[in-house]
Amino acid sequence: MVSAATYSSILLGNIRISYLPDGYILFNPMALFPTTSAADWQPYQHLLDSNGQLVGSLGAYLLQTPGKAILVDNGFGPRSYEGDRFKAYGGELLSNLERAGLKPADIDIVFFTHMHSDHVGWSGHKANGKQVLTFPNARHLVRNAEWLRFDNPEEKKARASVADELNLLGQHIEFLEEGEYITPEVRILATPGHTPGHASLLVTAGDERAIILGDIFHSILQIEHPEWTNAFDRDPEQAKTVRRRMLQELAKPSITGGATHVADSVFISLS
Fold first, then answer.
1. pLDDT at residue 1, as a whole number
2. In the predicted model, what is the mean pLDDT of residues 10-17?
3. What is the pLDDT of residue 247?
4. pTM of the model
5. What is the 3-state secondary structure (H, E, C) of the chain?
């Protein structure tokens, strides 16, 4: 039976990329993809649980380069949510970080692909009655457009869902843009659509490459159906264009994708 992805790692030369589960997520399939019908889902029953929910993964990535420990997103946090469109259950990230041999203080950089609640949930925690950074020694990075989108009145609801994280990160956040390097091995790709400032990361080691995709894909079935509209994409048509572009990249030799919500394994290769 399909399940959320478990802890796993791949090696690109001397770079280790680890997926750190934080829990799991269950999507109402026709709420996630509102243009689909029950007939569309008949070939994909193996991707659903016994209650007909689309099983997804929930977590973050740890990039260990020769000089830095980089956390890409930081999961949902120690909480749960149950709504009509999805249910999410977090809380495992720090134990999986420990499994990778690191403590929160060892993280040098936290990079946010985007700032939805299931990607920023471990940004802070309470200590002595006040909210403090979970990764106290890390630079916290995001694209400028992703941060500034919360100034848009249309993003009022989205802002409310991450208000605590925005308030905490406000004095710490730094901005990097398309084409800039976090480290010599890790470059930012602008991949808007899911959110206006959504980003992916291109990791390079010799002839090998990996793309940390963020939320360009929510399910493996989007490889076959990149045209399916995703209810969580802020600009669905732009997101479809980006998804098709990433599929072209993933079809090239020696390249692996990291798709955070894909079930079973978040690491995908099409070549």
1. 80
2. 97
3. 97
4. 0.97
5. CCCCCCCEEEEECCEEEEEEEEEEEEECHHHHCCCCCCHHHHHHHHHECCCCCEEEEEEEEEEECCCCEEEECCCCCCCEEECCCEEEECCCHHHHHHHCCCCHHHCCEEECCCCCHHHHCCCEEEECCEEEECCCCCEEEECHHHHHHHHCHHHHHHHHHCHHHHHHHCCCEEECCCCCEEECCEEEEECCCCCCCCEEEEEEECCEEEEEEECCCCCCHHHHCCCCCCCCCCCHHHHHHHHHHHHHHHCCCCEEEEECCCCCCCEECCC
> Does the 8-269 domain belong in CATH 3.60.15.10?
yes
- With tokens 């990075």, the residue in question is 141
Q: How confident is the model over 123-177, as pLDDT tens digits?
A: 999 888 889 999 999 999 999 999 999 998 988 889 999 999 999 999 999 999 9
Question: How many residues can be counted in the chain?
Answer: 271
Sorted by where each begins, the domain ranges of the chain are 8-269
